[in-house]
Specification:
Elements lengths: L1 H4 L5 E4 L5 H12 L3 E6 L2 H14 L5 E5 L5 H15 L4 E4 L13 H4 L7 H21 L1 H7 L2 E6 L27 H20 L4 E8 L8 H9 L13 H8 L10 E4 L7
Parallel strand pairs: 1-2, 1-4, 2-3, 4-5, 5-6, 6-7
Helix pairs in contact: 2-10, 6-8
């Protein structure tokens, strides 16, 4: 059974490696024995994180490369680096994504209303959350298709399955602090649809494509939000950053060899109600 979950001898790329979940994805793949390419927008931070990982996982080769994966040339650079250093790519984790950030906190309530939501924020989310996933899959995934094997894991969200409950953003005083905006749910729904498309398209090439759908991770949110989210979850808590490591290794490894086009939901039961 251990061999089924082993990634020893496999080479993995994780986009968005510096995020809270992204870092844990990297740890999970390394713990399973993979070699790893760490990538995110900031090259120096990627280099520093890869250095930390190399001290902890001495049996794996770990390299880093900063890249803007919304640009085809930079994704090609990332692919070429992986092939130069390892001569193969076995796992691609399309993890990079953004949530809206409003520059003026005083305008948050009004700008987050659907009626007022800025087009530039919509377009930015589409570019990072969808187009970048498309480019990485097209450019890096082709290496897998040409070699006849590989696993692509696209990271979605429970908001790709269900609509945001705006009541979660009402504080203890009954005040609506802001509204969850449309771009993140729409882009995460697109992740799930893209997974199905690519799984069907590359199935005969031996490339498996699956979605990992995580629930909300506790990360210093307002107490009222944590409490309300937890009450709406059968396990009565938000996720820990480490809660997705097992699911990721399962999808990356031969343990899921007959699984493609699927959506593995790991959300504490949030979407069953």
């Amino acid at each position: 059974m251990g061999d089924l979950f082993s990634l020893r001898g496999k080479v993995a790329i994780v986009t968005g490696s510096l995020g809270l979940i992204g870092k844990n994805h990297c740890h999970a793949l390394l713990e399973a024995g993979a070699d790893l390419i760490v990538t995110d927008i900031n090259h120096e931070q990627c280099k520093a994180f890869a250095g930390e990982l190399s001290v902890q996982y001495r049996d794996s080769r770990i390299i880093s490369q900063g890249a803007d994966i919304t640009l085809p040339a930079e994704v090609e650079m990332l692919r070429d680096l992986a092939l130069h250093e390892f001569s193969r790519i076995d796992v691609l984790v399309n993890n990079a994504a953004i949530n809206d950030k409003f520059e003026d906190p005083a305008a948050l309530f009004e700008q987050s209303k659907f009626e007022n939501y800025p087009l530039d924020l919509w377009n930015k989310s589409m570019t990072v959350n969808v187009t970048a996933m498309f480019l990485c899959s097209q450019i890096i995934g082709k290496v897998m298709a040409d070699s006849g094997k590989g696993s692509i894991i696209n990271v979605a969200s429970t908001y790709g399955l269900v609509a945001p409950n705006q009541d979660l953003y009402i504080d203890a005083e009954g005040i609506q602090k802001f509204y969850k905006t449309p771009a993140y749910p729409v882009t995460k729904g697109a992740v799930i649809s893209f997974t199905r498309f690519l799984a069907a398209y590359w199935g005969e090439k031996g490339v498996r494509v699956n979605t990992l759908t995580p629930g909300g991770v506790e990360n210093n949110q307002d107490e009222f939000f944590i409490n309300e989210y937890s009450k709406r979850t059968p396990l009565k808590r938000m996720a820990r950053p480490t809660d997705y490591k097992g699911a990721l290794v399962f999808l990356a490894s031969d343990a899921s060899a007959y699984m493609t086009g699927a959506n593995l939901v790991v959300d504490g039961g949030f979407t069953i109600w």
